[in-house]
Amino acid sequence: MIPVKGYAAPDVKIPLAPFNFERRDVGPHDVQIEILYCGVCHSDIHQVRDEWGGSIFPMVPGHEIVGKITKVGAHVTKFKVGETAGVGCFVDSCRVCPSCEAGLEQYCEVGMVGTYNARDKEGAPTYGGYSNQIVVDENYTLHVSDKLPLAGVAPLLCAGITTYSPLKQWKVGKGHRVGVVGLGGLGHMAVKLAASLGAEVTVLSTSASKKVDSEKLGAHHFVVTSDPEDVKKAFNSFDFIINTISAQHEYNFYLQMLKLDGTMILLGVPPEAPTVAAFNLIFKRRRLAGSLIGGIQETQEMLDYCAEHNIVSDVEVININYINDAYERMIKGDVRYRFVIDMATL
Ligand code: NAP
Ligand code: ZN
Ligand code: ZN
Fold first, then answer.
1. Is residue 71 domain-resident?
2. Could you tell me if residue 298 is inside a domain?
3. How far is CA 270 from CA 11, 51, 249, in A?
4. Relative to the alpha carbon of 108, which ligand is closest?
5. Which of 82, 186, 213, 282 is deepest in the core (most CB within 10 A)?
6. What SS3 class is residue 140?
7. Is 206 close to ligand 1, i.e. is its CB under 6 Å away?
8. What is the per-residue pLDDT across 234-263, written as a single tens digit (0 to 9) for each?
């Protein structure tokens, strides 16, 4: 077994603290990665607070991982020692169901094995990227270009692919008006990616102070959702809305901003069940959809696209002992726009 240092939530709603544990030895198809940076996703907060139910403790969160390969198993063919690599939200899946066969491992019919807060095929709990080492099957590991700053690349492994995948699925591009709701980790990546694909992007935010940033990120318009005059202009105007809000909110409010045949894609996962008024869908034939991260092949495509187009996340790099404060700030919407842990501070 490999000794690993990390940070864990010992139990629900107890602050994260240093935690030593072990990982499996490098198997024939595994790579060992020394973790350099790990992004902080709002899903980490939902899970350490057990807001979705079924959380496993102690929990080492983190699924936006980049680092250097330090060891490869005897049958590994895709990676070499010294290469830069990434790990996202899952580390295994059944590999044989129609979803896995189609490269949609996130929708595995047996269930993907999450990078943390899950159990592997042997039943052992998985531990995530708030740690200095990880061992992962090469088929669930991504190639990362050294061209871009690695701290800014880490959030692409979740925030990047989660926003890229629906933009591709719905073929968003030139001629489309896209509303991005919530300017946090996912939201700011949605703005950058949608703008890069040629869409006309509007940010819909509760934070008036984010207007200047939204333009720098590539948005064309900004709506403060507490300003009725601003909001009036947004009604019946969007082909797509990418909804990244992490907390309970009124879905009907945003549905009315879709034009005929418009689609609102839910990415945020508030713990509370939403209410949707049928009239808001029936009139104007609107659609309500959802999307979950992305498969391995599409994640690699997204990383390559970002390297080609110089797209990274805007990050605030933090020491690992700041993690509990970072969570409090994220809950208040006070993040510009992703916290990333420098694992050298572990
Ligand atoms: P984040 O960085 O904390 O950003 C969320 C943003 O939502 C905030 O910055 C804020 O933006 C807005 N917001 C927060 N509370 C709000 C409220 N009460 N009413 C209205 N707006 C509010 O979070 P994230 O990491 O981007 O994650 C967002 C959500 O996506 C989380 O629920 C997470 O679990 C989920 N997620 C889903 C997937 C997937 O595969 N579908 C993948 C990753 C994450 P403004 O200040 O601009 O209003
Ligand atoms: Zn995430
Ligand atoms: Zn499967």
1. yes
2. no
3. 21, 9, 8
4. 3
5. 186
6. helix
7. yes
8. 999 999 999 999 999 999 999 999 999 999
Residue 63 in contact with ligand 1 by CB distance below 6 A: no
- Asked whether 219 lines ligand 1 (CB < 6 A), one says no
Nearest ligand to residue 51 Cα: 1
Each residue of 159-206: pLDDT tens digit? 999 999 999 999 999 999 999 999 999 999 999 999 999 999 999 999
- pTM (2 d.p.): 0.98
Atom of ligand 1 nearest to the CA of 293: 40
Give residue-wise pLDDT tens across range 101-141.
Answer: 999 999 999 999 999 999 999 999 999 999 999 999 999 99
Torsion of CA 199, 335, 20, 10, to 10 degrees: -110
Residue nearest to atom 27 of ligand 1 (CA): 42
The three-state secondary structure class of 148 is coil
**Host domain of residue 202:** 160-290
Q: How far is the CA of 266 from the centre of ligand 2 (A)?
A: 14
Write out the two tokens for 75.
């049958």
Same domain, 183 and 151: no
Same-domain pairing of 47 and 140 = yes
The CB of 245 under 6 Å from ligand 1? The reply is yes
Name residues whose C-beta falls within 8 Å of residue 89's C-beta, 6 or more positions apart in sequence.
43, 63, 106, 112, 114, 115, 157, 158, 293
Q: How far is the CA of 89 from the centre of ligand 3 (A)?
A: 15
- DSSP per residue over 263-304, as a string? EEEE----SSPP---HHHHHTTT-EEEE-----HHHHHHHHH
Rounded mean pLDDT of 284-306?
98
User: Is the model's pLDDT at 274 over the cut of 90?
Assistant: no
Q: Is the CB of 246 under 6 A from ligand 1?
A: yes
Amino acid at position 346, single letter? L
> To 10 degrees, what angle do helices 159-169 and 185-196 make?
40
Contact indicator for 238, 13 with CB cutoff of 8 Å: no
Q: Are residues 256 and 327 in the same domain?
A: no
Is residue 281 within 6 Å of ligand 1 at its C-beta?
no
Asked whether residue 307 is assigned to any structural domain, the reply reads no
Tell me, using a 6 A CB cutoff, whether residue 186 lines ligand 1: yes
